[in-house]
Amino acid sequence: MLILFTIGVILYSLGVRVAALLGNAKAKQWVEGRRKQKPMDRIKGLLHRKKVTELSVAEDGRNAEGSNSDWVWFHAASLGEFEQGRPVIEALKKDFPQYKILLSFFSPSGYEIRKDYALADEVLYLPTDTPRHAAQWVNSRHFVAAFFIKYEFWFNYMKALKKAGIPLFYISLILKPDSFFFRSYGGWFRKQLHNVTHFFVQDETTAELLKAYGMDNVTVCGDTRFDRVAAIARQAKPFPDIERFIKGRQCIIAGSTWPPDEKLLVHFLPQLTDDFCLIIAPHDISESHVAQIKAMFPESQCYTELDLEKPSRILIVNTIGILSQLYQYARFVYIGGGFGVNIHNIQEPVTFGCPVVFGPKYESFKEAVDLVALQGAFPVKDAEELEAVFKRLMTDDEFYKKASETCRDYLNSQVGATEIILKGFKNILFL
Questions:
Q1: Which residues of the chain register pLDDT less than 50?
Q2: Of all helices (H) and strands (E), which one includes residue 170?
Q3: pLDDT at residue number 60
Q4: b vs e for 21-56, b when ≥16 Cβ sit within 10 Å of the residue's Cβ?
Q5: Which residue intervals of the chain bear CATH 3.40.50.2000?
Q6: How high is the pLDDT of residue 80?
Q7: Given its phi and psi angles, is residue 61 left (phi above 0), alpha (psi -120 to 50 degrees) or beta?
Q8: d(CA 297, CA 290)
Q9: Degrees (nearest 5) of the Cα angle 257, 395, 311?
Q10: Which phi and psi (to 5°) does residue 105 adopt?
Q11: Looking at residue 34, what is its pLDDT?
Q12: CATH fold of 237-414, please?
């Protein structure tokens, strides 16, 4: 079965290369990034140096510089998973500064943005999951542990780590009963999970599923992203231009919006009273898309061209990297993506006590489901429902305060996963 899995991985890799040749931008970036970086060439070079070092140590007892370094490997699919692993990397580097960090990505969306991440000693694309690549990768350094984040199941790498006696931890893992692991054909896939040293999972459902199939090496600790967003909130800096734009008004922020979300907001625009202002931070900040938003909201201004002398109720944030901190100014927040594949991050506004509104596609995110049940978050399916929720959050102070307190209480109940993971790591590694 592992042979069939490996063949599938190789065929997928070939498919991506064909897509790149046909002009798919993301596929081309995936292929070009690996071609330029040549991760396996680096691994082969490390293997050669390791053999030379081992020979010199055997001959005269001397160690080449850095050859005795201990490494911890973190692997993330893309940027979102990296953000889940980031608190653990930061905590581990604080407690074990002697360990070097190897950070690997599958997707260009993670690698291209975090290839210069300061706490990682090396950042690489993960080579294709074949037995040869996995064995070379695992033997290229002296790894003391590996952390796979959330859904990254690469069975050849998992097997190679087990064979080498390197502890493998999963963090922020969440599984559902309809996962392929628990289907009628899932026996072989479940067997691969026995290569994992310990699972740090988000919820009791995941823990019960694993335990039902004999995997008791499970700890429920929640989602490490909450630790990350809580840290962002504590370190939030002021934005004087934003504060002068708001000028004492109540602020609604629409974050990570797509065209269907922006069309809903246009419908609500006539209901936006003078004591409120709206900040729109679109997911796509290309000039063409920002121009479309400006045409939809004629009185709007762009953040990079903000004229504080010009009266305006609408600001378009046409830059990246500041949205997570802008939520400190919001009364409540609309999160985009819910009329497409899935909503974007709601944890960032929740950490500031902001009630959140979003479209109907949200059920893949535990925190969204939880907060809808607790009435700290509100799904809408059309402009009429959005208007009703917005008006109530704007005018009903009791309703708003209850929703805001619900969000704060929920966040406080979720932080602490990183501390649990690090404690478990220490116990397993050193006992």
A1: 52-53, 55-67
A2: strand 168-173
A3: 44
A4: eeeeeebbbbbebbeebebbeebeebbeebeebeee
A5: 237-414
A6: 85
A7: left
A8: 10
A9: 60
A10: -130, 150
A11: 85
A12: Rossmann fold (3.40.50)
- Compute CA 37 distance to the chain's CA centroid, rounded to the nearest angstrom: 23
- Which pLDDT score, from 0 to 100, does residue 151 have? 86
CB of 156 closer than 8 Å to CB of 182: no
Which tokens sit at 300?
Answer: 């709007």
Written as six digits, the tokens of 267 are 């419908």
Residue showing tokens 């202002």: 277
Give the SS3 label for residue 318: coil
The pLDDT value recorded for residue 66 is 43
DSSP 277: E
Alpha helices, DSSP H, located in 97-214: 108-114, 131-139, 155-164, 187-192, 204-212
DSSP label of 305: G
Of 219, 194, 198, 195, nearest to 207 by C-alpha is 219
Q: Report the C-alpha gap between 423 and 413 in whole angstroms.
A: 19
- Helices marked H in 165-300: 187-192, 204-212, 225-234, 240-246, 259-268, 287-296
Domain 67-222+416-430 in CATH 3.40.50.11720: yes
Spell 353-367 as b/e; 16+ CB within 10 A means b: bbbbbbbebbeebbb
Task: Give CA–CA dist 169/152, Å, rounded.
Answer: 11
DSSP letter assigned to residue 382? S
Instruction: Say if residues 271 and 394 touch (Cβ distance below 8 Å).
Output: no
Structure tokens at 262: 């922006």
* Residue 250 identity: Q
Separation between Cα atoms, residue 291 and residue 285, nearest integer Å: 9
Q: Helix 259-268 crosses helix 383-395 at what angle (to 10 degrees)?
A: 60
Query: Where do the CATH 3.40.50.11720 domains begin and end in the chain?
Result: 67-222+416-430
